[in-house]
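CORE FACILITY INTAKE
Project code: CF-77B
Contact: R.S. (postdoc)
Sample description: multi-component assembly, two entities in total
Requested service: structural model of the whole complex
Turnaround: standard
Below are the sequence entries exactly as provided by the requester. Do not edit them.
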Amino acid sequence: MHYRFHVITWLILTTFIIAQPKISGRLGMAYSSPDYKTFASSPFPTKGTFESIMVDIAFTYQFYANARIGFSQWSSFTSDKYNGEDFARSFQYRALIIETFFFPMKKLELNFTLGPMINSGSISLTTNQTIEAWDNLMEEFNNSGIDISTSDEMKTTFFGITSSIGTRYYIKPYVAVEFKLGFMENFYSKESWKFQKKDIKGPDIDISDLPVFTFGMIYGW
Amino acid sequence: MVKFFTIILFSISFLFCQDLKNIENPCKSELIIKAKKEGMRSIKPAELPKYLKDVWNCRKETAGKKTLQKINQRTNEIDQNNSSNFQGFTVTCAYCASASVLIFYIFKLSGN
């Protein structure tokens, strides 16, 4: 069953690659300036500039002479300690993009991107607890000093739109570097978080209108 | 896991085993000539393994580097010719994106 899953995955992936002649992928870094109001002050951790750096991954398919459609994702992640326990916070900004472009000169492309977004955020905490019943059971088997780990997370989903203009330089016909300048307009609400299937309030974060600068490498055929 | 890699290796070797013509100079293979004329994006996905194999062998030849440079140049030329101007609806999309980015930064910089 396990092998079957791998083989099917491999077949799907390779079929996808060879079925689309003008498919490309981008891996890059993005900078934005979200205002994590509650996160920025104690007790929540802050990472300064690094908190504003996101990893960017995108896949596009050229369906027309001047247009591509695809998927783009910016991931913002921070992990630290909160009251001595493992704390992590992540935001995933996902966009379905349409990108139009033209070549003003050889090897140089100007592109224009628009897209709706469906984003998600999560805050997780892993605590090491001591529960007597477990301790006793562990000691029955001659184990000692084992802390039971309990992990849970609160989540939110929110919509947004993104737009950007960019320039791409082809080093080779299949490798390029790209810089993009754009923005995200997010409809985030601190009231719409969920924890253990219950509605709760989340952190106060100002991510409603974010400027985004992206730099990345493109590989495609 | 071993079975998985065996299947992948078998599949890859199956793709590469079809040497249709034993060409003395790989830089003069059908696919390389086609890429030189029409750019590398003219190579169909199914022809890609054979083309990559030809390119790999061609780069070892004396004129290999030049041939590959020509393919790259031709591909760049064709890309530019195909997409030098906006066609159809794409211009509307470009205007929308440019206008929204411009308006966003005007508002942002003016502090509103």
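Facility notes:
- DSSP finds three helices and twelve strands in chain A.
- The longest strand of chain A covers residues 148-172.
Invoice: internal transfer
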